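Much of our argument rests on the idea that a fold can be written as discrete symbols. Part of our work consisted of pairing the sequence of a single chain with a tokenised description of its backbone. We regard such an encoding as a compact summary of how the chain folds. The amino acid sequence and the backbone structure tokens for this protein are reproduced below.
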Amino acid sequence: MKQTKFIDVHKKYGAKLVDFAGYEMPIQYSSIIAEHKAVRNSVGLFDVSHMGEIIIKGEKALDFVQYITINDASKLQIGKVQYSAMCYEDGGIVDDLLVYKISDDKYLLVVNGSNTDKDFEWMKKNNQFGVEIIDESDEYSLLAVQGPNS
């Protein structure tokens, strides 16, 4: 089972750890109810390092992202993100994802951890634009800050 870069912190603070998408991940610390209330009323920090990170690079990176996702990535400014989804030709969902515009010719797609391999292969299969598609999931650690005071 893989571990995130934050495993020692999770253990230090008494996290209950479980297998999630092949990673040893915290499911709770002191109390699920107290943690839920903290995030709803203030702020919470989540280790989401199990998510998949796929880089799309090349002159036609935007064309490729537009082709494989349902939202309009052309509206993104550098450094911004949008929620989107990838669909099969019959309209079924491949996965939902976040699309980050890194530069005019580079995008970071954050996919669900349990779907990373499937999504990566699907992207390669549908690459009609000559872009580089790089799975960098093992290179990233992600923290999500959520709640009204985030």
